[in-house]
Write a structure and sequence with these properties.
CATH class: Alpha Beta
Number of strands: 11
Helix content: 25-40%
CATH architecture: 2-Layer Sandwich
Radius of gyration: 19 Å
Strand content: 15-25%
Shape: globular
Number of helices: 8
Oligomer: single chain
Structural class: alpha+beta
CATH topology: Beta Polymerase, domain 2
Distance between the termini: 42 Å
Number of domains: 1
Length: 276
């Protein structure tokens, strides 16, 4: 599946690079980090938007290019490339009817102005909406405080009433207000807000590294990228928890086929927790 994404980007002149744990895995392990469970890719915003525009034509079954626009029940702010004949299910998502095949995370990098005042304004505006949007990813029962519980309920009601894409679209427009090509700095401004800021120059050239049986693209400035994200000792393995929790992976069966048993197991665990 990673090969398919790289092939599509090459054929259409789109820039993409390994990101996060996948970049670290390529540099340090020449493949997956032993405890990682997914692939992360990043792209400049113009290329990311172009990929969205052509996705329907370049990804046929069993591939599915998933965004909040192409899958109305999908509630994340970045794109994922899925294989619909496989399964990658979080038990807490098992009652949500979006495509839950094995996936690649695809993130957009935005331009960041030198004057951080407008950037802070963008992030502040976006975060107000994000509080609403992120509520759908949490259990209503996860809070021990009545006030927070009530606010989560209201935010979740808004998401169900208006739809995730309708509420997230204005956030993306805020992110686009500073062009990748006109800024010397770039950052991911996803649903978790501003994380790290990089000089755009680290992406000026692309290197190719071994990753399992593939050659994968990495930014020439990968050292600064990884030091910024993981610290100066990034070449020293430090075991970390996966970001995806109890992800149920199956390469042989479609997520639709195993979803009923995942739901039953998840319901049983909640009933046991509640003493029912």
């Amino acid at each position: 599946m990673f090969h398919k994404l790289i092939e599509v980007c090459k054929q259409n002149g789109l820039r993409c690079w390994c990101d996060g744990g996948t970049l670290l895995g390529a540099v340090r392990h020449h493949g997956y980090i032993p405890w990682d469970d997914d692939i992360d890719v990043c792209m400049p915003r113009p290329d990311y938007d172009r990929l969205q525009a052509i996705a329907k034509d370049v990804f046929q079954e069993p591939y599915f290019f998933q965004t909040a626009k192409t899958d109305k029940h999908y509630y994340r702010g970045h794109a994922q490339l899925r294989r619909s004949d496989t399964a990658a299910i979080r038990p807490s998502d098992s009652f949500r009817p979006f495509n839950q095949g094995i996936f690649i995370d695809i993130f957009a990098f935005e331009g960041v102005p030198q004057d951080e005042t407008p950037l802070k304004e963008v992030v502040a505006k976006a975060n107000k909406r994000m509080k609403c949007l992120k509520s759908i990813d949490y259990s209503i029962l996860a809070s021990g405080r009545i006030g927070l519980l009530f606010r989560k309920y209201i935010w979740r009601w808004k998401v169900h009433k208006y739809g995730f894409y309708t509420l997230f679209k204005p956030i993306e427009e805020l992110y686009r207000c500073h062009s990748w090509d006109e800024c010397d700095r770039v950052a991911q401004l996803g649903i978790d807000g501003l994380k790290y800021i990089f000089p755009r120059s680290i992406f000026d050239e692309t290197l190719w590294m071994d990753f399992e049986q593939l050659k994968v693209p990495v930014p020439k400035g990968y050292d600064l990228f990884l030091r910024t994200q993981y610290g100066d000792n990034y070449m020293t393995p430090i075991h970390a928890k996966t970001n995806h929790g109890e992800l149920i992976l199956d390469t042989s069966h479609c997520y639709r086929d195993i979803m009923p048993q995942v739901r039953r197991a998840y319901r049983w665990r909640w009933n046991k927790f509640l003493g029912l």
